[in-house]
Every structure is written in structure tokens, then in C-alpha cells.
């Protein structure tokens, strides 16, 4: 049996909606290949991988914060200033690195807002 609908019909080869799908030679649904599905690998990283990823994220964050501070310090130096003060939070590792480089770092909290001051005088 071929498609029971004429070629000009909107139902021509609309096999999914046809009651004769099982016996029609023109049925187009019988040869639809299914895509190959692969199960996800490493859905949850191992503890050592998670530890390494966390340490990399911390290092990247510290590096980024130090780069931003470097620009602020260079701008202040160009303006003849000996310190910078900003609202925000310094990560403990960033503060430690600045102090190792000889900077005086003060942090605080005022009206529930963190701030920091870095000086090199």
C-alpha cells in the first residue's frame, strides 16, 4: 500500500498521524536513525581533582586582585600619593602577599561595608 493521501494534500506522508503507518510502503518514520547517546563521564570530580581546581581558582582570584591593586597603586604613585583606600574586601592571601612586599595594609568594616587601605610610606 502506498500513501493514501494525494501528493497535493497536507497529510501526504504525514505518517505519524496516519492509521495505516504499519502497512504503507511510503512510510517515512521507519528509517529514522536514533542518535547515539553516550553517558556522561566524570560527573563528579574526585576529591583530589576538586582540591586542585579549588586551589587554581584561589590562585587565579588572588592574581586578579593583585593585578587590579597594582594598577591602583601605579596610578596613585603617578599622582604623587603614598596610599590608596577603597571600599571592598581583600582576600587574606592578597593581604599576606602585599605585606610580604612591604606594604602596610589596614582593613575594616564601617556601616556593614568592608574597606581597605594600602600604604607604602
Describe this structure in words.
With 121 residues, this protein is α+β, with helices and mostly antiparallel strands. The chain folds into 2 domains: 1-31, no CATH class; 51-119, Ribosomal Protein S8, Chain: A, domain 1 (2-Layer Sandwich), CATH 3.30.1370. 34% of the residues lie in helices and 16% in strands. It contains 2 helices and 3 strands. It has helices at 47-78, 92-100; strands at 83-87, 104-110, 113-119. Strands 1-3-2 form a 3-stranded antiparallel beta sheet.
Q: Average the pLDDT over all residues and give the rounded result.
A: 84
Helix content, binned percent: 25-40%
CATH arch. level architecture of the largest domain = 2-Layer Sandwich
Alpha carbon gyration radius = 33 Å
Supply the number of structural domains: 2
List keywords for this structure.
121 residues; alpha+beta; Ribosomal Protein S8, Chain: A, domain 1; 2 domains; three-stranded antiparallel beta sheet; 2 helices; 16% strand; elongated
Amino acid at each position: 500500500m502506498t500513501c493514501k493521501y494525494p501528493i497535493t494534500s497536507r497529510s501526504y506522508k504525514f505518517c505519524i498521524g496516519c492509521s495505516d503507518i504499519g502497512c504503507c510502503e511510503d512510510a517515512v518514520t521507519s528509517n529514522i536513525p536514533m542518535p547515539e547517546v553516550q553517558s556522561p563521564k566524570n560527573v563528579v570530580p574526585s576529591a583530589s581533582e576538586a582540591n586542585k581546581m579549588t586551589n587554581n581558582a584561589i590562585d587565579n582570584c588572588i592574581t586578579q586582585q593583585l593585578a587590579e591593586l597594582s594598577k591602583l597603586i601605579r596610578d596613585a604613585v603617578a599622582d604623587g600619593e603614598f596610599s590608596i583606600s577603597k571600599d571592598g574586601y581583600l582576600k587574606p592571601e592578597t593581604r599576606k602577599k602585599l605585606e610580604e612586599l612591604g606594604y602596610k595594609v589596614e582593613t575594616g568594616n564601617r556601616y556593614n561595608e568592608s574597606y581597605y587601605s594600602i600604604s607604602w610610606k
